[in-house]
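Deliverable D2.4 — example input (structure tokens):
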């Protein structure tokens, strides 16, 4: 009996962990917050970063920022094919140089079904820390530069729809409204299952 109870508790715990580590979908308010710097690289930071990488690969993305899992910290993970970097986790990243301009189609894991043209710098120089606390400098071009800019925007509470061309923004407006409605629906269903509401119903 005890063994069964232990198993149940373990399963509930796993299910809960799995539930919290999911990609936050627009228009969740956390996506609009300016994230706080990571002050210390402890086990929680390393573990969450690893889980973020797994989540990003599962979703077939090339980048994911901490606010996209509801964690308002200046940490991103990215893995762009062809980049000459071993690190995949970047802490407190800052763009220190931008060059050129290029318009390309862009998507975001927090905006399922939304694609639009966004102007970005063609080249960037970025400073960030890795999980060992080493300060690194990267020069990036093309898709790699785009991913840096997209993810660093996330930790500043800026979203790619803010920078979308007017034509693209118009084209995706219907889908954005749909995502807003779906979010409202999820919010009200959470309220229904909240303990205080259940108690009131009884
Ligand atoms: Zn994004």
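Example output (designed residues):
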């Amino acid at each position: 009996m005890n063994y069964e109870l232990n198993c149940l508790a373990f399963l509930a715990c796993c299910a809960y962990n799995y539930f919290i580590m999911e990609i936050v979908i627009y228009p969740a308010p956390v996506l609009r917050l300016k994230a706080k710097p990571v002050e210390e690289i402890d086990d929680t930071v390393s573990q969450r970063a690893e889980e973020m990488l797994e989540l990003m690969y599962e979703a077939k993305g090339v980048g994911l920022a901490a606010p996209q899992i509801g964690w308002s910290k200046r940490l991103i993970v990215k893995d762009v094919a062809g980049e000459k970097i071993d690190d995949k986790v970047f802490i407190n990243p800052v763009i220190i140089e931008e060059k050129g301009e290029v318009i390309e189609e862009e998507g975001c894991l927090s905006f399922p079904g939304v694609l639009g043209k966004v102007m970005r710098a063609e080249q960037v120089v970025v400073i960030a820390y890795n999980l060992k606390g080493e300060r690194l400098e990267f020069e990036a071009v093309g898709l790699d530069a785009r991913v840096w800019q997209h993810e660093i925007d996330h930790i500043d509470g800026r979203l790619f729809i803010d920078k979308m061309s007017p034509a693209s923004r118009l084209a995706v407006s219907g889908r954005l409204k749909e995502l807003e409605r779906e979010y409202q629906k999820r919010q009200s269903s959470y309220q229904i299952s909240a303990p205080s509401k259940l108690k009131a119903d009884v």
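The mean pLDDT is 88.
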